[in-house]
Amino acid sequence: NEFNVKNIIFSGTCAIFDEAKDKLRLSSDTTVPFNPNSPYGETKLVIENLLKWCDQAYNIKYVILR
Fold it and tell me: d(Cα 16, Cα 46) in Å, to the nearest integer?
């Protein structure tokens, strides 16, 4: 916000989903619950949530490529 950023492209990961759901996470099913099994997946999920709040608070638009 300080630097007037209005759009963000974020490189997401399937690591935010439960590994047992391999077949589902490779599909377009958006109902698969989040369940990261590593620090990498956990931090990616935290950033995705942060982006959502930045959009609501500062109108910073984002897209997540997964």
Answer: 10
